[in-house]
Amino acid sequence: MGQSVKPISSPVPDEWYPTLAVFMLAIGLVVTASFFVYEATSSRKNRSLAKELTTGAVASVFLGFGSLFLLLACGVYV
Amino acid sequence: MGFRFDLFLLSVAILLAPSLSDLVISKVDRRIDLTSQIVRISATLKVENVGPDPVLEVLLPFPDHQAKNLAYLATTTNEGKGKSKGPATSLPIEVVQPNEMPPALTWYSVSLPKGLGKGESLTLDILAVFTHALRPFPEKISQAENQLVAFQESAHYLSPYIVKVQLLSVKLPPDFKPESYTKLERSELSGSEIKYGPYENLPPFSYSPIIVHFGNNQPFAVAQELLREIEISHWGNVQVTEHYNLIHGGSQIKGEFSRLDYQARPHVGGASAFRHLVANLPPRAHSVYYRDEIGNISTSNLWGDSKKTQLEIEPRYPMFGGWRTSFTIGYGLPLKDFLFQSEGKRFLNISFGSPIRDLVIDNLIVKVVLPEGSKDVSVSAPFPVKQWHEIKFSHLDIDGRPVVVLEKTNVVQEHSQYFQVYYKFNNVSLLREPLMLIFGFFFMFIACIVYVHADLTISKSSASYVAKLQWDEVKTAIQQVQNIINRCLTVHDRLDATLRDLSRTGDVQACKVARKAADSLLKDLSKELKPLLAFLHSSPQAAQILPKVEDLVAKEHELQEKLMLKHSTVIEGYEKKSGGREMENRVALIQQKLTALRQEVDDLLEVIDEI
Question: To the nearest whole angstrom, how far is the Cα of B77 from the nearest Cα of chain A?
């Protein structure tokens, strides 16, 4: 093996996966909750689509990464 | 037992005795290791060129019946002599078919890269490993018997060259005396070793069959099929899963199996059986499991240190001759120990063979599952293997993961060498899985938004639907009112804050400006409020809630007035520089009312909120 060979490791250290999973899922679930609270309480005319979409997008980013890290922490290496 | 003297071969060998080339083997020292189920023959050859021309290859013939069991053949040579021996270099070997040679022989040709000039000599170390070369004899034994096996070889080194001096030693397992062995002149048994020779000046193709019959209770574990699946995840793991299909390849057991005998005296009641296997896993292996079709097998032990991880597994039952078992072991390995980057390419560097000790594998299939999005896959293996490509679908895949499949028959410990799988991978592809999850969740939210926005009523003219629409409008109006009131309250708070600033800085002018701004804001807000209130008045559905709303608006108005009063009073006090106490009293009075009103407004807001 030459000198230019260097080992590859994961972009995020393995030990962080459980912590990341917990925090990102917690944040994601809180944002999801606020999304549904908004959906349920605001009346048809007052609702703003932009706000719904941004809340949904933020929640899905957190839930997406959170569930990925949850899978990784459980040993399901995707 | 049919002792198969290769009479034909012998006769041919004697007839065809011309020396192949100008090579002469001046000394052969062969050591045959029969202590396990695998036969390892190591030979040290001293080759001399007596002819005028340089020689580029040395031929190694094996009888066909041996060659078909040949699992591994390696030749090394040491440059230099005596103590100044250099590192051993391995020489390339290929199968050849020379003309006018006796049949029933398989020929291997060792190339000498530098060639052997006239009068020069060279020492070759040859290691040949054979599987299934020990024949159980008798083929069937009872539970209490020891396993006996027979091995057939030639006392003379089979070679197309003249062999000047040769020695052979056969090492047997130390626990038993050999049952029998072919006695030739100059053969000798000492301890567990049989020595033949030295024999001198034998012509080419000398063949003198010998048979050794001895006891061998070593585990004859043969994996008829082993599937190793190595899955790379760039999120930090190399997952290895090995599916074994194992058989005890020694003498078959006849009669009944008595668990009592086995349990009471395992060395007498089950000498030929093996009860456990040991696997040497790489260091830092984690999440090790051992299971079969019906679930986890609990009889396993695991030790680990910084150099290796040792896994001892025990099949569900002791393995007697001819008995089979199949199981799966799996483990995760840290990515950084096995995956490397070099010149824009990534490569996996991992061991080819099974980690289980002293295992013969009839058919080994290694599958390397690369991450989705890998391109330009190529394999470099230290020995020839059959290879092809596949696609595997696993978690969160769209177009599947590329799989390289390597297949090799007759694999032994010596094949546990590192091989490399090269591929190209873009780090952006790492984000595929999270993006899929994110879009999955996002579509769920979109679905919710669509559901909430969609009007799914079938009868658009029914009374209840109209009522619902009206109620929606009322709700909208009320929410807007709430919103405006809240904004008013914020303006109040801000104005109040300027008063506090005033007491600190004494800047009356700033306070006045703030007052003016607040006034205009509040005026705008009350203008906005008017049509909403008018609508609520006109709507029959709002009748119930209207008093509360009006109350709220009125209270807010009062609050506003009182606040303005307080503001004017304070400013006035400042401008006139009137006595602190008097002003304080007045302000305190107003403040009391303000607090009460604020409380009422908040309560009303809450009440309306709950409707």
Answer: 23
